[in-house]
Each structure stands twice: as structure tokens, then as C-alpha cells.
């Protein structure tokens, strides 16, 4: 029998220890994206990569924080449905974990966010959609939200196309 943990059990282990998985590093990318998470080891398709950690808050508290947070901080709030209600993981406070630094990639992400329930509480975890090689940026699709950086990237691409 294999001693290797299943991806779900690996996620539960890292959730319970509160530590990020080895094989990941933070790098500054540019002024548009800021920092990102990059692999230093190989991750296989389906493997647990990391948890999006933060404070679990309800809909009312999420709305309150959206009103008081600076626009830069709102990007660290991840909304999801659980038990028929809207919840948010608020990762605006930098606790040193890496999940909050994973960037959006809506065309070709290499990870997918999944909800894992541990001790009756939801946790958001990223799992590899395909094999990820060392040196690749870890990304996932933020959803269908109208993300301001997407329109800025599209504009920069159009300028580059018309300049050539």
C-alpha cells in the first residue's frame, strides 16, 4: 500500500498545521500583478497545492468590510456559498501564508479552488489542474467577476498590437 497521502488528506494535514506546503516561493512580477506564488518543485495533476487562508466571515460582515476597505484590500476577499448562504474568506491581513498571493488566470489556470470541510468549517484549497513544473507561477481563475486588471491587460495587449 502507498504511503503517499491522498490530495484531500494532504490538504487536511496542511489546514490542521496552518502551514504552507513546501515547494512554493514568492516572487515580485511587475507593478500590475505585484507578487505571485511560484513552484520550486513538481506538482502533479490533482495534487493539493495550498490553502487560501484568512478569516471566515458572514455576508453582513463582508458587506461592512467592503465599505471600509481600500480597493486594494477588497481583492483579498473570496466569496463562496456554503449551506445556502454567502460566506467570505477575508485574507486582507498579511499573515505570511501564500494563498492570498496566488494570481488570477482566466484563460489557462493551472489550479482550481475547491472547498474542503475540516471540523465543520469550510476551507478553500487550490489543487493542480495539470502537472505544474518547477518555476511556474501558480494561478487560478477568480471567476466571472469583472476584474479591473483583466481590462488593463486587454488594453495593454491592444496597444502592443496596434503599435506593431
UniProtKB/TrEMBL annotation:
Residues spanning the membrane: none
Signal peptide: none
Domain SET: start-end pairs: 22-143
SUPFAM superfamilies to which the protein is assigned, alphabetical: SET domain
One cellular-component annotation, GO: nucleus
Molecular function terms from GO: histone H4K20 methyltransferase activity
UniProt superkingdom: Eukaryota
InterPro entries assigned: KMT5A (IPR051760), SET_dom (IPR001214), SET_dom_sf (IPR046341)
Biological process according to GO: regulation of DNA damage response, signal transduction by p53 class mediator; regulation of transcription by RNA polymerase II
Name by which UniProt lists this protein: SET domain-containing protein
Organism: Ameiurus melas
Amino acid at each position: 500500500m502507498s504511503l503517499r497521502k491522498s490530495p484531500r488528506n494532504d490538504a487536511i494535514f496542511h489546514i490542521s498545521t496552518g502551514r504552507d506546503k513546501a515547494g512554493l516561493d514568492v516572487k515580485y512580477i511587475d507593478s500590475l500583478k505585484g507578487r505571485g506564488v511560484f513552484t520550486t518543485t513538481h506538482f502533479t495533476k490533482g495534487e493539493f497545492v495550498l490553502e487560501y487562508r484568512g478569516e471566515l466571515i458572514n455576508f453582513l460582515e463582508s458587506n461592512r468590510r467592503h465599505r471600509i476597505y481600500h480597493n486594494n484590500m477588497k481583492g483579498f476577499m473570496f466569496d463562496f456559498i456554503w449551506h445556502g448562504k454567502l460566506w467570505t474568506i477575508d485574507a486582507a491581513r498579511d499573515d505570511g501564508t501564500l494563498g492570498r498571493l496566488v494570481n488570477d488566470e482566466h484563460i489557462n489556470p493551472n489550479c482550481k479552488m475547491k472547498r474542503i470541510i475540516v471540523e465543520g468549517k469550510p476551507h478553500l484549497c487550490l489543487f493542480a489542474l495539470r502537472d505544474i513544473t518547477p518555476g511556474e507561477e501558480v494561478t487560478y481563475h477568480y471567476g466571472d467577476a469583472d476584474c479591473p486588471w483583466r481590462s488593463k491587460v486587454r488594453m495593454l495587449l491592444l496597444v502592443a498590437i496596434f503599435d506593431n
